[in-house]
Design a protein that fits this description.
heterodimer, A: 293 residues, mainly alpha, MetI-like fold, two-stranded antiparallel sheet, 13 helices, 2% strand, B: 436 residues, alpha/beta, D-Maltodextrin-Binding Protein, domain 2, 10-stranded mixed β-sheet, 20 helices, 10 strands, globular
């Protein structure tokens, strides 16, 4: 039987959701509509002259090989960030779950990085890996590695991935830990009695039961890699070298804010909006079918 | 905590306003001079404010060049621009095309009857900010140029005469010797596009783009993929491969590599002198940029970098009188001499240069006159007056991207420069369409 709470007044429920609706409209829908409108315009930076150019901005965009390259880079970057972020934090959570002495200290330390803003995380890692003064660079040079992400694209990608993942691990860790702790001990004990070793128990019992958490984190991490890593990139490579870390959202910012090309930048955000809508739809279909709650 | 700071700031701002309640008109000046340079800017404003009672110039540090330019544009769109904004040289064409958003400096001066003689300024400096009819559009503020530095200690250690090579051929020979003597970082550069494309072209009297480097109109096209440019960039790429050239990054990262003693030779801004002196780690000398000696007419003269002050439109009419007074104050020889000797930026008037020389400053501080000497080496030609390309902020990043591709060996110099020209032209066409 379903439980239903019914408001006596007809307008009270609307009033209660009104602030949230207002925020959503002002900060999400209104800018989104504006972005769509601007994507059809060609305008100078100061907004003195405006022309309607139809789909011209989109045509230019998809004829630009660097924009297409940016798609590929974004895909690689998100897979690396989401993938390694989830795997590393799952391992950490599984280990922290088994710690008995000083568990609180471990957990606190593991959650700590989440309190650091992405831009600061970027600066931090950029300092350690700085081509001429970085402490890690110094160590790498001693080992004979020529570390210079200012010119080497793969190294630059590695750097932004490390910084982005480090920043996100704590968040993933928290959810995994909570997920692990909600798995009934009896199930694991039963498996142990049946002779399953720790590895077997992990793969056959723990992991399937963690699937809703993992899935949730996958969605969150991909969204994170797509949008929130912008600060990390701006603070370190700024999309370079030679566009090797130019992810889509950074290009939107760069073209719109730094280069003053509002039409092109808006067209890119519209494209990005569609990508995210598509991804979300796919993910939610997937959730309903595959994940066991 | 944050709230407390804001409250305190508001309160002190309120007090300041009360203090200057004598109806002095406020003139907002947005700039990008951080650290020691910011202190200099404050000192200039304070001196001007003390010199008269009608106007108060309020300098506001708005962040880096791109940030303050973006902020000024956003403020204009919101109909509340500052009176004066400092814009870096690459933003020049964008500002210039924004008729209605800016007031040409020549007009500001004329309208308020302030004494103003455009001939008093250094031509290579003002040429950058003057339209084809000879009207000065913005007032040059901090101008530098690209120079070549050597670490004398490193030269001596390698058994070389501590004299800077004059040509790229000589530089390469010296580089090989330095490398053989165990020098890890032989040569590096800051501002790759500005030094190796923009200044390189002017120094060799070859065009960067058609229509006098864009000064003649929006229909300009890039030409920096000429055989000479390709040869130069390929040489750098080869040097990178041989370990003779270390790419430091897109902005001023090379400065620290030289000042810290890591690199033996370095090309960068004249304004790097301050940092090198302050670090005090190397025995250095500053010289003219190297050139390719088989190019006819080289060396020509170098071009400036830095920023100028733009007057924004849309303020009360009476305010512009104060703006004009302040700009006139900035051009005074005394103000210029102080700025020049304190920062290493070049003086913008001939009078200020002469005054500095007469004071014996250059004899005591060798190198400070090198920038002016290089900028005025020969009378500027159409190729060496400066450049004016729309959306150059974006284009310069494209150039740097392609240079990175060449330096890392991903592309040949030819392919990289061809691509840079192609992509740059596309951006120029877009700018042209938006500013028809």
């Amino acid at each position: 039987m379903e439980k239903r709470v019914v408001f006596r007044s007809a307008w009270l429920p609307y009033l209660l959701v009104a602030p949230q609706i207002a925020i959503t409209v002002v900060f999400f829908f209104w800018p989104a509509v504006q972005a769509i409108w601007y994507s059809f315009l060609l305008q100078d930076a100061f907004g003195l002259k405006t022309q309607f150019v139809g789909l011209q901005n989109f045509v230019t965009l998809f004829h630009d090989p660097h924009y297409l390259q940016s798609f590929k880079i974004t895909a690689v970057f998100s897979v690396l960030v989401a993938g390694s972020g989830i795997v590393i934090s799952l391992v950490l959570a599984a280990m922290a779950d088994r710690v008995i002495r000083g568990a609180l200290a471990y957990k606190t330390l593991l959650i700590w990085p989440y309190a650091v803003a992405p831009a600061i995380a970027g600066v931090l890692w950029a300092f350690m890996f700085a081509p001429s003064i970085g402490i890690v660079t110094y160590a790498l040079k001693k080992m004979g590695v020529d570390w210079n992400w200012v010119v080497n694209g793969e190294q630059a990608m590695l750097l932004v991935v490390i910084a982005a993942v480090w920043n996100q691990i704590s968040y993933n860790f928290l959810f995994f830990l909570a997920g692990l702790q909600s798995i009934p001990r009896s199930l694991i004990e039963a498996a142990a009695i049946d002779g399953a070793g720790p590895t077997r128990r992990f793969w056959s019992i723990v992991l399937p039961l963690l699937s809703p958490t993992t899935f949730f984190l996958l969605v969150i991490n991909i969204v994170y890699a797509f949008f929130a890593t912008f600060g990390v990139i701006d603070a370190t490579t700024q999309g370079g070298p030679a566009g090797a870390t130019q992810i889509l959202v950074y290009k939107v910012f760069y073209d719109g804010v730094k280069a003053g090309d509002l039409g092109g930048s808006s067209a890119q955000s519209v494209v990005l909006m569609f990508i995210v809508i598509t991804l979300t739809v796919i993910q939610f279909r997937f959730i309903e079918r595959r994940v066991q709650y | 905590m944050k709230r407390k700071v804001i409250v305190a700031a508001l309160a002190s701002a309120g007090l300041l306003m009360l203090g200057s309640a004598q109806a002095a008109t406020e003139i907002q000046w947005w700039h990008s001079m951080g650290g020691a340079l910011g202190e200099r800017v404050k000192a200039i404003a304070a001196k001007f404010n003390a010199s008269q009672k009608d106007y108060t110039v309020v300098p506001v540090y708005k962040g880096s060049y791109p940030v303050s330019m973006t902020a000024a544009i956003a403020a204009f769109r919101a109909k509340n621009p500052p009176h004066i904004v400092q814009v870096y040289e690459v933003g020049t064409a964008t500002m210039m095309a924004a008729k209605g958003a800016i007031v040409p400096v020549a007009k500001v001066m004329k309208d308020s009857g302030e004494k103003f003689n455009p001939k008093a300024y250094l031509p290579t400096v003002t040429g950058y900010y003057t339209d084809m009819k000879g009207n000065m559009l913005s007032l040059p503020f901090n101008s530098s140029t690209a120079l070549f530095y050597i670490n004398k200690d490193a030269f001596k250690k390698a058994g070389l005469e501590p004299v800077a090579p004059k040509t790229w051929k000589e530089l390469r020979a010296v580089a090989e010797k330095l490398k053989a003597a165990g020098q890890q970082c032989v040569y590096t550069t800051s501002w790759p596009s500005w030094v190796h494309i923009e200044n390189f072209s002017a120094w060799h009297n070859v065009p960067i783009g058609t229509l006098q480097n864009g000064m003649g109109g929006l229909g300009t096209k890039f030409e920096f993929n000429s055989p000479l440019h390709v040869r130069h960039i390929q040489m750098l790429a080869d040097m990178a491969k041989q370990g003779l050239f270390v790419y430091a990054g897109r902005t001023s990262q090379g400065d620290a590599k030289f000042a810290g003693g890591e690199c033996a030779m370095f090309t960068g801004s004249a304004s790097a002198i301050g940092g090198i002196k302050k670090a005090g780690k190397v025995d250095w000398s500053v010289n003219f940029l190297p050139y390719h000696d088989d190019v006819k007419g080289a060396p020509q003269n170098s071009i400036i970098g830095g920023a100028s002050l733009w007057v924004m439109a849309g303020k009360p009419k009476a305010d512009y009188k104060g703006v004009a007074k302040f700009l006139a104050f900035l051009s005074l020889p005394d103000t210029q001499v102080e700025w020049h000797t304190g920062t290493g930026y070049v003086p913008i008037t001939m009078a200020a240069y002469e005054q500095t020389r007469a004071s014996g400053f250059y004899a005591k501080n060798p190198g400070f006159d090198m920038a002016v000497k290089e900028l005025t080496y020969k009378a500027p030609t159409a190729n060496s007056k400066g450049l004016r390309f729309g959306n150059f902020v974006q284009i310069r990043d494209v150039i740097k991207e392609e240079l990175e591709a060449a330096f890392s060996g991903k592309k040949t110099a030819k392919a990289a420069l061809d691509d840079a020209v192609k992509r740059g032209d596309e951006i120029l066409r877009k700018f042209q369409a938006a500013n028809k």
